[in-house]
Amino acid sequence: MMPVMTKDRFTLPALGPTSSLLRKCVPFVVFACGCGASTTEPEYPTEPAPREEAADPSWETEERNSRNDEPVPRVQPEPSGERKKPVFTEGMTVDEAIAAVPEDYEYIGLDQDVLAKPLVDIETYKECKVKPSDKFKVRIAVWDGKVVGANVTSQNNALAKCIDEVVRKLEYKDRVEAINTVEYSF
Q1: Rounded CA gap, 165 and 126, in Å?
Q2: Which residues contact 30 (CB under 8 A, 6 or more apart)?
Q3: 3-state secondary structure of 14
Q4: How far apart are CA 154 and CA 185, in angstroms?
Q5: Would you state the pLDDT for residue 84?
Q6: Do 98 and 29 sit in the same domain of this protein?
Q7: 150 and 138 in contact (C-beta within 8 Å)?
Q8: Domain span including residue 18
Q9: What pLDDT band is residue 136 in, cutting at 50, 70 and 90?
C-alpha cells in the first residue's frame, strides 16, 4: 500500500494493529529517503584558484638570509634614556590623570580595599561637616601614593568642593609608579 500525502501530512489506509506504528514511521522513512544521502566524496580542486594571494611573510618571527638560509637577527630599538614621567596638574579629573600616564608604564594594581580605606572612614571628611543625610560619590586616581585626580559629585556643591579638597590631600603608604583608581559612594 502506498501512503497518500495530503497538503501537510501522510495518511495510510487502515492496516490493522500495526497501522499506528506505520503512521509514525512512514513520514520519517519517506523524508529520509527523499533527502537522498550520496556516498560519493566531493571533488576538491587540485590547483589553487587564480584569485588566491601569496602568503604574507610578515607574520614570521625571523627573516631568512637568501644566500645561506640562516636567520637574520632583528635589530631591537634601543631605549632612548629614561622613560617620560607623567605630568599631573592640580585639579585634574580621574580621566585626565589616566590620560597623562605614558603608554610605556606598566599597570601595577593596588588592593581596592587599601585604596578605599580612607574614603570609607567618616573622619576623613570631618572638616566638611558631613551629615548622615548627605549623599556624595568620590572617585580618585592615585599615583606613587598621592591622589593626582579626583571626581566628587553631590547635590550640595559646597560639600562636593570641600570633599574634593580633602581627598586630594590624601597620601598612601603603598607607592607604585602606576595609576590606580577607586570609587566610593556615601
Answers
A1: 12
A2: 3, 10
A3: coil
A4: 10
A5: 83
A6: no
A7: yes
A8: 4-35
A9: very high
Question: How much is the pLDDT for 131?
Answer: 87
Q: Can you tell me the distance from the alpha carbon of 130 to that of 78, in angstroms, rounded to the nearest whole number? A: 54
- Residue 52 half-sphere exposure toward CB, CA atoms < 13 A: 6
Read off φ and ψ for residue 4, nearest 5 degrees.
-105, 130
| pTM assigned to the model | 0.55
Return the DSSP state at 171. Answer: B
C-alpha cell at 25: 514511521
**What span, in angstroms and rounded, lies between the C-alpha atoms of 3 and 15?**
11
Q: Residues 163, 152: contact at Cβ < 8 Å?
A: yes
Residues in the chain: 186
pLDDT in tens, 76-86: 444 555 778 88
Model pLDDT for residues 106-118, shown as the tens digit of each residue: 888 888 999 999 9
Q: In angstroms, rounded to a whole number, what is the distance separating the alpha carbons of residues 38 and 40? A: 6
- Residue 172 included in any domain: yes
Chain centroid to CA 13: 63
Provide the number of structural domains found in the chain. 2
